[in-house]
TrEMBL record:
It comes from the Bacteria. Residues 1-25 form the signal peptide. GO terms for molecular function: phosphotyrosine residue binding. This is Lytic transglycosylase. Keywords: SH2 domain, Signal. Residues 56-164 form the Transglycosylase SLT domain. CDD domains: LT-like (cd00254).
């Protein structure tokens, strides 16, 4: 248990008065537990004696013993001050002894370690001081003996840090791992044997202000709560002559023990307290036993404090609406699958899981970009209705695709339309060809290379850009087969035989080859032939060839 050091002095001042003006009143109540056995140095007292010490210290400070015992269990599950070797128990974060007090300036550290009575009193004193804090909320009209009114002081015993917020700010869900939630769950389990549910606070995320990434304390915006459920007074102040009622069908034991004989009485049976309570000796149980008798005095014996109340068990009017979780605003990709009920749940404090009763109005069309409103409603058996409006945005982050804008070579003086055969298509908007924008120019009357930039933007502002290179043909045709050659004297010779020409754009231009020069096969010697061919872009290729006549 960690409490900021700055609070310790204040706590001491606030709570010393709870022990009749003395810092520790061992003589007034701790000695009353001597009947449970004598305490030995460096040894844990008997279970019954620790039960007595916790109970007496709580009553002296006017704190429900149910609360103190649950805190002690949360801090130290088996209620021990010393380990098997007789050494004081210390946690890894410095918590000391039974009540796991940490960083307690103003307290005698050695006594916290070695004196279990001092340790208990200090823990009770700190808890009582938390109740006195003005910044912590309370239940309207409730006093110190109302168990539910200790919810926030129990939180503060561990620290009013974001980790102990009753709700998660991001989704409004109950933080069942908060320290005080675990203590109150333990309290229901121990002191009520899970037969009774304590009243719930109607929390809202607006009630708390904190930064989960900060070490700063929670700021409480709502100072007072009104609980619609029935609250529970501690039963430890019952005295002889008080009338109580059973909260369940329960066994009245012959002796103060779960192993003794019994008579069973139904729920709401009227009983009369006939004396002071006695302590349970078994470590398995945290309650006490009250001696009781029925109103007709036919049944007498002992009843567990877990099953009695001074309030009738009349049905509590349910005015709490269920809580819908998981219906937070969402964004989903275009053309994706979307289930409006996926991960959406509803829970009611009385009916439990009511997810199957959720109704959804509205529809999300993932094939159309936009924002859609869904309304979730659910009602419990008491006809309390919860409603949540959820915004679902269908978004598109896919760029359009530009096609046909590949690099290209064209002839000189040819006509050229930069948008011809160029198209744009978007996954959501369809054809965007009409929205294509082209920057850059091409001069088809001048050979060279030109760069064009194509841009198009869809309705979701996704932009596609393509650069295109347009080349005005400057490539000459290629003449093949016009190699040097030796031929026989007086043989036949055709200068174009085996000679071809091919152009990158015009293809086969062999028929356009022009030859200059002659070969006289009747006269030995060397002859030069010149081959010339031009394409439509006026690119000219020239090759010379030597023919030797032997």
């Amino acid at each position: 248990m960690k409490i900021p050091l700055m609070k310790v002095g204040v706590l001491s001042c606030l709570t010393f008065s709870l022990f009749n003006g003395q810092a520790y009143a061992e003589s007034e109540w701790a000695n009353a537990c001597s009947s449970q056995g004598q305490m030995q140095p460096d040894k844990n007292p008997s279970y019954g004696q620790i039960n007595c010490l916790l109970t007496k210290a709580a009553i002296a400070a006017e704190i429900p013993p149910e609360v103190v015992k649950a805190v002690a269990t949360q801090e130290n599950g088996d209620w021990r001050q010393f380990d098997a070797a007789g050494k004081p128990i210390k946690s890894s974060d410095g918590g000391i002894g039974l009540m796991q007090l940490t960083n307690k300036s103003g307290y005698d550290q050695k006594k916290l370690e070695n004196d279990i009575v001092y340790n208990i009193e200090a823990g009770v004193e700190v808890l009582s001081g938390m109740y006195a804090r003005k910044d912590l909320p309370k239940i309207k009209g409730a006093g110190r003996r109302v168990i539910e009114n200790w919810y926030f002081p129990v939180m503060a015993y561990n620290g009013t840090k974001p980790v102990n917020s009753p709700l998660y700010q991001e989704n409004g869900k109950r933080n069942t791992r908060a320290y005080q939630e675990e203590v109150f769950a333990e309290l229901e389990k121990q002191s009520y044997l899970s037969s009774t549910k304590l009243a719930s606070y109607p929390f809202s995320t607006k009630d708390f202000e904190y930064d989960r990434g900060s070490t700063a304390n929670i700021t409480f915006k709502k100072p007072e709560y009104t609980l619609t459920g029935q609250t529970h007074d501690s039963v430890y102040w019952f005295k002889a002559g008080d009338k109580v009622a059973t909260t369940a069908s329960v066994k009245i034991r012959e002796r103060a023990s779960t192993s003794s004989g019994h008579a069973t009485v139904p729920k709401d049976s009227k009983l009369i307290i006939t004396g002071d309570f006695v302590y349970e000796e078994s470590a398995a149980n945290k309650f006490v036993w009250f001696p009781v008798q029925t109103e007709n005095k036919k049944i007498k014996g002992y009843i567990s404090s877990a099953y009695i109340s001074n309030k009738p068990s009349t049905p509590v009017v349910d005015t709490n609406a269920p809580v819908i979780s998981g219906a937070t605003n969402a964004a989903v990709p275009y053309n994706s699958s979307f289930d409006a009920k996926s991960n959406v749940k509803a829970k009611d404090d009385k009916d439990g899981d009511v997810t199957s009763a959720i109704r959804v109005e509205g529809k999300v069309d993932t094939k159309k970009v936009g924002t859609y409103n869904l309304t979730y409603t659910v009602a419990d058996k008491a006809r309390n209705v919860a409603k949540v409006i959820r915004k679902v945005s269908v978004y598109d982050k896919v760029k359009p695709v530009i096609s046909g804008a590949g690099s290209k070579t064209i002839r000189l003086n040819a006509s050229f339309d930069p948008k011809s055969n160029v198209s744009a298509k978007d996954n959501a908007d369809g054809s965007l060809t009409s929205k294509l924008k082209v920057s850059g120019t091409v001069n088809t009357k001048k050979k060279g290379s030109y760069t064009l930039k194509y841009t198009v933007t869809d309705s979701s502002k996704n932009t596609a850009t393509v650069s295109r290179k347009i080349t005005i043909d400057s490539t000459k045709p290629v003449i093949s087969g016009a190699t040097n050659k030796t031929i026989a004297y007086n043989s036949a010779f055709n200068p174009k035989s085996g000679v071809t020409a091919k152009d990158n754009l015009d293809g086969n231009v062999t028929n356009k080859i022009k030859t200059t020069g002659t070969v006289n096969t009747k006269k030995k010697g060397s002859y030069t032939l010149t081959y010339t061919v031009a394409d439509k872009s006026q690119n000219k290729a020239v090759t010379k060839r030597i023919i030797t006549v032997k």
